[in-house]
Amino acid sequence: MTHGALQQRTIEDFGEQWVKYQDNDGYYGSSALFRDIFGPLLNEGEIAGARVADVGSGTGRFVNVLLAAGARHVLAVEPSGAFEVLRNNTVTSQDRITYLNAPGDCLPATGDLDFVFSIGVVHHIPDPMPVIGAAWGALRRGGKCAVWLYGREGNAAYVTLAKALRAVTRRLPHAALALFVWTLYGPVTAYMMASRYLRIPLAGYMRSVFARLTPEKRRLVLYDQLNPTFAKYYTRDEAHELLAQVGFRDVRLYHRHGYSWSVIGTKP
């Protein structure tokens, strides 16, 4: 399958997912989760008064988080069939939002944004460089691009298991995949409980993030891991180069809970 076909199929996967799972309740859509993702790389106060873009807005959970942090205006970019869900979930702040129903590489090259965020999206794009290049064109000098990515380091056993499962689950219709997630939920919950006491893979994530989600959102996370046609797990060097090769400077990385990469670079 070509990169273009992979990308379109993945967009369709997420469009169906976000039409089925529309709300962003609790910790799942919280400012606390945003702070956990970007950790020491970004002071949330920097967003106050800023013009920002959110590439791959989905159901709007981080659009609302950015607005709550005081963003002056958000450009919400979402290419999938969940675009109307995004609009509905952010309708109370629509005067501070511009909506763009297009892929991230269509981000306008206005050169005036303070931040471009893409959280949990770039690792689902087979060729992400056009998106990162578009972020460069949209940012002002001194503006920052911030992405969150699946990581390879500290994740070997999980990546092997996820790839094996996804070879089957990505082909399942929604109802069958949702049922499969229910069968996994019990063992995963037991693993989460064990992570409180044992030094096991992903223990930090299980204790600090997964355990804070509602049962419904835990099942959504499992669904989200098993649904997409394409997912890449980035090494540290790959995560750094993703921004550096476009020209971003002062590229900083945060190995979040030892399993993923949060990355921020500045346009000189």
Compute the separation of the termini in Å.
Answer: 37 Å
Radius of gyration: 18 Å
Q: What name does the CATH topology of the largest domain carry?
A: Rossmann fold
pLDDT averaged residue by residue: 96
The CATH class assignment of the largest domain is: Alpha Beta
What is the CATH architecture descriptor of the largest domain? 3-Layer(aba) Sandwich
Could you explain the architecture of this structure?
The protein has ten helices and seven strands. It has 268 residues and is α/β, with parallel strands linked by helices. The chain has two domains: 3-152 and 232-266, 3-Layer(aba) Sandwich (Rossmann fold); 156-226, no CATH class. It has a seven-stranded mixed beta sheet, sandwiched between helices. The mean pLDDT is 96.
Supply the key terms.
268 residues, alpha/beta, Rossmann fold, 2 domains, 7-stranded mixed β-sheet, 10 helices, 7 strands, globular
